[in-house]
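Note to self: keep these together.
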Amino acid sequence: MTKPTTYGIIGCGMMGQEHLRNIALLPNTQVGAIFEPNAQMRAESARFAPDAVFVDSLDDLLAIETLDCLLIASPNFCHVDQLDMIAKTRALPILVEKPLYTEPQDLARINAFAASYPAPVWVAMEYRYMPPVAAFLEQAREATGGIKMLTIREHRFPFLEKVDDWNRFNARSGGTFVEKCCHFFDLMRLTLGSEPVRVMASGGQDANHLDERYDGQVPDILDNGYVIVDFENGARAMLELCMFAEGAEYQEEIAAVGPKGKIEALVPGPGRFWPEHLGAAPTPKLILSPRDPKGPVEQDIPVDPDILDAGDHNGSTFYQHKYFLELVRGDRSAPEVSLTDGKQAVLMGIAAQKSISEKRSVEMSEIS
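Structure:
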């Protein structure tokens, strides 16, 4: 057997542990080292990677010669500094969690990193790899005859508790429409095959975290909103986000419409949140609704139970790692989700946050 592909893990909170569970499902892989400053998260991570060495710094991790690739799953505001440190120390293939960065002033650093880093970097956009979304992406253009309108709705649970509550404040998360919604802006660009021109958004903090206090401060992250995006090719897209709607049957509903018809993907939320008294969790679906002949065609898109149980993202983290490993092992020539993809998704989120705060539409040329 060939040498196992060995990961170095940077950050092992809730999402990092989901990565560990999925890496364990892939053949001939191992986690060689983990850098996680929080003692509780280290203890949790050791359950999923019992053979990994825990180190006290990123420098210590990068000094381990057996590593073949790196995963960055640290809090959002850490990503840019860690990418810069890696670039100065040792160039390895990287899978970096979204969002790639959080502040407009970080853009120049990301551009400089992208221009000089010699190894491939894959931005973790798990939603692309949810099986019903992947089926939607494969069939959308043919089903619609050319997409003119794209709608993405996420009705979900509030932000979960994270280490040191970093996701409760815009200053550390980038804001809800960067932290949470860069996934959906990435899907918009991918589905439409075009770049955004302008963004108009309305949102607020109306239900969540208002009774919480951290060092005397009230969380300022938004919990709902609408975003409309105009694209260069004339298509338009809309995002509807509500983070106090966990009672919904499906968490994500994506619909594309064109002159030929409509296609929808329906994705349930994490199975661990589905109430037992309601029976089995909803099955992901793909629905095609042609204009002629009329009549929706509904298709179940089930996910392997072992893969589904390994995370909260409908199996997508497993498939993302499968394809990333192809890149690391030389079986794929380039990342499927590039630094440009990660950068553009964040810029759209920044534009949405700016539109909400300034109560106006924002041209992408203002911030890119």
